[in-house]
Amino acid sequence: MTDRLPALYIGHGAPPLLDDPVWSGQLAAWAADLPRPKAILIVSAHWESAPVMLSASGAPLVYDFGGFDAKYYRMTYETPDASALARRIAGLMPADEPVHQHASRGLDHGAWVPLKIMYPDGDIPVLQMSLPTHDPVRLLRLGERLRPLRDEGVLVIGSGFLTHGLPFLTEWRIDAAAPGWSVDFDLWAADALARGDVDELADYRAKAPGMPFAHPTVEHFTPLFVTLGVATAPDEPGVQVIDGYWLGLSKRSLQVA
């Protein structure tokens, strides 16, 4: 028997994802099919900070969004103490990539929104790690350093959105038709992921159709490289568990062994 868990790259949506029965159902079913984690480490697009930082265990949630219903600002997601996981992560980092514990930052919506769906009881220790760079090579290396956590029952998640061209959306409906740039980038990524072509994915700025509209800023794509780095063999195709579009943006999500 092994406690080894896969690693995930998920689209995290916005707070209204919590009220979307289709996508929230997909995330809940996915989590139910996974071995139960002993702890969760999640890297969200919404915390860009170098050097590498870890969230404060038990800190209040970060409501890093605006213009939504007031109920989302009252939501909570309390999880058990994750200090042991923080110490373990610190021990995995080399001298040239130290990890620091933030004194007061809690989980942002790129972490707590999907986790509230996937693990609604909040009974699993959770830490969030900052995204220290957008360099795919460095993020792959960071993921590789985190790889031993999988054998210890830790679920590592990169949380972003496979396309995220919010400034270029013309319709703001969950069922809006996907723009051409979103479809083109999504299909390109799906093909590269199916072939395990990490080099192609890493050269997305030059090779991906739909750029820069799909990612005018790239923080929602680059958590993918942490996930691929955590994979036992990054160039082995993973399982694309969720696909389709939300607001016209690709919610394609990946599980790697």
From TrEMBL:
Cofactor(s) demanded: Zn(2+)
Q: Which residues form the Extradiol ring-cleavage dioxygenase class III enzyme subunit B domain?
A: 26-232
- One Pfam family name from the record? LigB
Q: Does the record carry Plastid as a key word?
A: no
InterPro entries cross-referenced by the UniProt entry: Extradiol_dOase_DODA, Xdiol_dOase_suB
Tell me the domain of life: Bacteria
Q: Does the keyword Transmembrane helix apply?
A: no
Keyword tags: Dioxygenase, Metal-binding, Oxidoreductase, Zinc
Q: Kindly list the GO molecular function terms attached to this UniProt entry.
A: ferrous iron binding; oxidoreductase activity, acting on single donors with incorporation of molecular oxygen, incorporation of two atoms of oxygen; zinc ion binding
Which family is annotated? Belongs to the DODA-type extradiol aromatic ring-opening dioxygenase family.
Under which name does UniProt file this protein?
Dioxygenase
Annotated source species: Nocardioides gansuensis
Q: What is the lineage of its organism?
A: Bacteria, Bacillati, Actinomycetota, Actinomycetes, Propionibacteriales
